[in-house]
């Protein structure tokens, strides 16, 4: 089978049978097409699935390691995405009875642990107090910040919300998140109050929960044109982080981390936080435990020799 034909069938499988998001399919296409281009540039005029071998994989990874990134060379995590895509493709080929190399032979590079960024209670209060709710933009932005911290929504989930999804009386709504995983999201009293105030200030009939202000003529705009983009939300969060003079370079995802940390520190169990965040695997949620387990501090304070006789 020609490699291009195989990749096309694999992407169709992701879209139809796995119900993967458009973003996931796009990313897999990008990584696999990148590998195919490399093979063609290496002299293989029409690459086939048999050309996925250790020698070509090794040369491809060497090629990636020498490619420029946003800061210097391409990051190992980005290189890892290519490896993951090729491994997934090989697993699909084997599942469909094609004789190809074992996916396990392709190792995914290990990444350095990065410190988990989150805001403490004082920093959260400073951030939330920045938007001027006396203006329509400020009221919208305050509602966005409150909802991000209240729910732990991903920014893509936030901007996809429509007005009719939110039940302010029950303070909850359903959402389909990453990987097509559905979950119920709960809103704090404070966030519900801000959302209610924001929605009452709206004099339009647009479906999106969070809309842009200014720019094109709102009357002539469609719902899709009015909907805030993930990049817009990232920019406004950055703006208020700078305004609050926070020592953390916080993003919308930092508020997601902060929500999880807030719950765990207050005594919530890991399984419940996993469900609230929409993590498919609890191992993903466990990244928070090393900064939230107060019992470890108690053990250290009680038994470490440097703490005795004080």
List the helices and strands and how they pair.
Blueprint: H1 3-16, H2 22-41, H3 54-65, H4 76-95, H5 121-128, H6 136-151, H7 155-159, E1 172-176, E2 182-186, H8 189-201, H9 223-226, H10 230-243, H11 252-265, H12 270-277, H13 282-285, H14 289-292, H15 294-303
Antiparallel strand pairs: 1-2
How far apart are the termini?
73 Å
Please compute the radius of gyration using only Cα atoms: 24 Å
**CATH class identity of the largest domain:** Mainly Alpha
Structural domain tally: 2
Q: DSSP strand (E) fraction?
A: under 5%
Profile the largest sheet.
2 strands, antiparallel
Low-confidence segments:
none
Averaged pLDDT: 88
- Helix percentage: 40-55%
Count helical runs. 15
Question: Based on CA inertia axes, which overall geometry fits?
Answer: globular
The CATH architecture of the largest domain comes to Orthogonal Bundle
For CATH, the homologous superfamily of the largest domain is named as Intergrase catalytic core
Report the order of strands and helices. Answer: HHHHHHHEEHHHHHHHH
* Biggest sheet strand line-up: 1-2
Number of strands: 2
Structural class: mainly alpha
Main attributes?
DNA polymerase, domain 1, 310 residues, 2 domains, mainly alpha, 3% strand, hpI Integrase, Chain A, 15 helices, globular, two-stranded antiparallel ribbon
What does it look like?
There is one protein chain. This protein has 310 residues and is mainly α. It folds into 2 domains: 103 residues, DNA polymerase, domain 1 (Orthogonal Bundle), CATH 1.10.150; 176 residues, hpI Integrase, Chain A, CATH 1.10.443. The longest helix has 20 residues.
């Amino acid at each position: 089978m020609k490699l291009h034909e195989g990749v096309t069938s694999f992407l169709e499988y992701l879209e139809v049978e796995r119900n993967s998001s458009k973003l996931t399919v796009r990313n897999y296409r990008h990584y696999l097409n990148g590998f195919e281009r490399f093979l063609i540039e290496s002299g293989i005029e029409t690459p086939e699935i048999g050309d996925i071998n250790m020698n070509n994989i090794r040369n491809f990874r060497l090629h990636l390691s020498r490619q420029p990134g946003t800061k210097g060379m391409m990051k190992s995590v980005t290189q890892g995405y290519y490896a993951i895509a090729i491994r997934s493709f090989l697993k699909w080929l084997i599942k469909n009875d094609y004789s190809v190399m074992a996916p396990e032979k392709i190792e995914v590079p290990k990444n350095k642990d990065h410190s988990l960024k989150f805001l403490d209670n004082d920093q959260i209060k400073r951030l939330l107090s920045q938007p001027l709710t006396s203006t329509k933009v400020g009221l919208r932005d305050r509602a966005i910040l409150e909802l991000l911290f209240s729910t732990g929504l991903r920014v893509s989930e936030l901007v996809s919300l429509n007005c009719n999804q939110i039940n302010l009386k029950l303070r909850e709504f359903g959402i389909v998140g990453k990987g097509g995983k559905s979950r119920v999201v709960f809103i704090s009293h404070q966030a519900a109050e801000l959302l209610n105030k924001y929605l009452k200030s709206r004099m339009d009939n647009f479906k999106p929960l969070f809309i842009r202000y200014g720019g094109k003529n709102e009357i002539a705009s469609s719902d899709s044109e009015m909907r805030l983009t993930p990049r817009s939300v990232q920019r406004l969060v950055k703006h208020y982080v700078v305004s609050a003079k926070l020592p953390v370079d916080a993003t919308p995802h930092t508020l997601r981390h902060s929500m999880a940390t807030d719950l765990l520190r207050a005594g919530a169990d890991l399984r419940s936080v996993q469900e609230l965040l929409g993590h498919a695997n609890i191992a993903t949620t466990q990244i928070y435990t090393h900064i939230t387990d107060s019992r470890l501090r108690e053990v250290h304070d009680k038994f470490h020799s440097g703490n005795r006789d004080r």
